């Protein structure tokens, strides 16, 4: 009798976006991964050090967009209070915050 062994597959999608409308141009990455052990999708933007997760791909990306928006808001505010703030995420934060709302951030992620 043959026994089939089930293996969990991890699926990963990586999207790289380039923003030419800002100087210097920005490149950011969105990684979405299915984690079968947890039964969730994990979405990341390494440049913003932001993550989101959810039971569906849409939920994970929605949460990532909200997280990016929140980080961007805080970074832009902190820089306004302290112009000497040096954070490598600041150019990305300015770009994402310039979009105006989390829905527009979401639209460009994937």
Task: Please characterize this protein's 3D structure.
The protein is of the alpha+beta class and 110 residues long. The protein has a single domain (11-109), classed as 2-Layer Sandwich (Double Stranded RNA Binding Domain). Helix content is 38%, strand content 27%. The chain is built from three helices and four strands; from the N terminus they run ββββααα. It has a four-stranded antiparallel β-sheet. Helix 1 packs across helix 2 (90-98).
Helices and strands, in N-to-C order? Answer: EEEEHHH
Show unreliable segments: 1-7
CATH class value: Alpha Beta
The major pleated sheet works out as: 4 strands, antiparallel
Q: What's the number of helices?
A: 3
Radius of gyration computed on alpha carbons: 17 Å
Average pLDDT across residues?
90
For the secondary structure, the number of strands is 4
C-alpha geometry: elongated
Helix content: 25-40%
Distance N terminus to C terminus?
A: 45 Å
Largest sheet, spatial ordering of strands: 1-2-3-4
**Structural class assignment:** alpha+beta
The CATH architecture can be given as: 2-Layer Sandwich
Q: Report strand %.
A: 25-35%
| Count of folded domains | 1
Provide the CATH topology: Double Stranded RNA Binding Domain
What is the fold's blueprint, element by element?
Layout: E1 11-19, E2 26-35, E3 40-45, E4 50-54, H1 57-81, H2 90-98, H3 102-109
Antiparallel strand pairs: 1-2, 2-3, 3-4
Helix pairs in contact: 1-2, 1-3
């Amino acid at each position: 009798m043959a026994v089939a062994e089930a293996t969990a597959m991890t699926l990963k999608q990586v999207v790289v976006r380039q923003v030419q409308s800002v100087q210097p141009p920005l490149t950011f990455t969105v990684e979405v991964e299915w984690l079968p052990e947890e039964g969730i999708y994990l979405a990341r933007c390494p440049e913003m050090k932001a993550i989101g997760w959810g039971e569906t791909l849409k939920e994970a990306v929605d949460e990532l967009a909200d997280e990016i928006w929140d980080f961007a808001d805080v970074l832009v505010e902190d820089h306004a209070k302290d112009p000497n703030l040096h954070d490598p995420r600041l150019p990305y934060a300015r770009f994402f915050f310039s979009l105006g709302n989390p829905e527009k951030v979401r639209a460009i992620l994937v």
